[in-house]
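batch job 7 of whatever, protein = TransglutaminaseTgpA domain-containing protein
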Amino acid sequence: MQPIDKPIRNQTASALIALVFCVLSMSLFEPLLFWVLLISLCATGIRLVMYFGWYQPMPSLRTINLLGLLCCLCLGWFSLQIGLLLTMVNLLILAGALKLIILNRPRDLFHLFCTCLFVIGMGFTFHQSVVMTLFYGLLTLSLLVALGRYFSPSQHLPWHIKRLAVMSVQALPIAILLFLILPKLPPLWKMPVSKSTETGLTDTVTPGDIANLTQSGELAFRATFTGALPPPAERYWRALTLEYFDGKQWSVSPLRKQVRKQYRLLNNEFKPRVSGSWWEYEVITEPTNKHWLFSIDVGIPDDLNSSQAIWQSSDYSLLSETPITSRRAYRVRSYPTTPMDQTLYSIDSRLNLQLPNNPAVNPQTQAWAEQIAADNVTQVERVQAVLDYFVDQGFRYTLTPPPMPDHPIDDFLFIHQEGFCAHYASAMSYVLRLLGIPARMVAGYHGGESLQPDVLSVYQYDAHAWVEAWLDGRGWVRFDPSGIVAPARLELGLQQAVEEESFLANNQMARLQQLPLFAELRNLYSLLDYQWSRWVLGFDAERQQNLLVLLLGKVTTQRIMFLMLGICLVIGLLLALYFIPHWQRKRPPANLRWFLQASQKAEQITGLERHNDGPEHFAERAAQRLSPQSASQFKAICQAFIALNYARDGEASAQSNAFITQCKTFIRQAKAL
């Protein structure tokens, strides 16, 4: 079928594609530069103005070329800040916007159609939730409706939607089969690293950073356990180890990064010797644009795919080989009773006895540490003296501590004596270093909400920090001073450990979700999103192999060949069922169907049979047994039916709806004489 011969600007297809492109651009609000998004909105407005005929002349090609050159120069300037990935995203949106402005030929329409499809695929780089998947699916269907509208402009829009819906339902089983059997190949190229804003923890932490992070109700990751969940007090999810302290903030030590780099060059990965009981679980982490992963100590990769994608550091943290730019699933086995004494003490002590270069920072803490060292001899006594101080002085656990900009440790320990977990962990780690005990701060998450009996959902407000100190003969030992001040933080979660009014105080949506109805809807959505992440996004090569083992028993080349042939046969039968014309029953035109129904109604009332009578002859026979009004209606129907069969296409289309209405009225009101 050929499209109608009129300018692209006046066709509904151009307006539909313009609207889809506009919605796509707005869905990429976060990775797009503001001025790029503004250009795409303006291009959509220009296209709609031309579609409605409010302004006819198109911008000249010289104007568009000049605008494109200026956009490329501006984008090149910003590319140094946003990275290669986001530069390519913005460039594609700019190209689509400029093409939308000069849309005037069928080739332009097809180019823009393909561009929108590519942008939809690119959107899954940033959004992979089940809601966004449905959203992008609807946009894809809208694009197909626009294309169908271009080739069949005489058909009404509901006809296109219905036809596309039927074809989508037909294609669904084929898509599912292909999803299950097509080999899960590794990517052909590496995704460029984005410099967009990271979510969650960062590798430089001040005491107030984690307190701010707890105001976010966004999901951090989910963990599915094989068996029972760990007790609440044992749910310490290590993310990164902070070993460098400058007197105010903690960060990953540059020396630790250098050691990791050397070990990678030598392919000398840290392999802890684990023992005792374990917890086995799968983690599905949200994108963070960082390398660190989450695990309970001591965690090791649990399968081949996870081992290949994870690098195990000598500080007992797990690192991804590539940044986490999309949802990532990996399997871990944790051994909580394994002693953490298997690293090189020479390196660890050098890193974790480091003190700030400026000795004038926190002088009161230094004097207090000297007093503790004089009163206590052993490491255990000194650690206990620090913990006892938090209890004896009546410290308070709060999300809204006062600012402590100049001497943060002194102000926290001796003036304000209130703070969040990072304040306690930072102060204790620094004091232990002053006492000659290697200590470091570990940042991660603690706790998690039970989504199912074996599933934990960990949110950003579960962010936590604790202390690890090296004790002779025991290695690294975990201490959580905030857990001593607020035991409810470990057993019941953050909301029970702080004042209720300060929990998620700045997040109105999260506060709304605390209502019973919204909490139930939130749990329902979380469960749906979890199942989507686990069974669809997490359907990797290993799970595909497990599925083949379940279907075939022993996986051999011959059995796989028979399976592929069988699936190809099923797909071929489905396609034959859908598209072989003589298998499908041809439906009569609507006018004929309604005329036959009206004739059957007349036969039913009068008791006459039509046989092979023509419409007018049967109307005369039936009029003798119908009421005057019904006889008049039936004669009008027969005359209109004859007129429709011999009318021109345009006239028939205009009179068809009126004829159908006449038939419906007669069927409903017909009476005998």
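notes: The radius of gyration is 35 Å.
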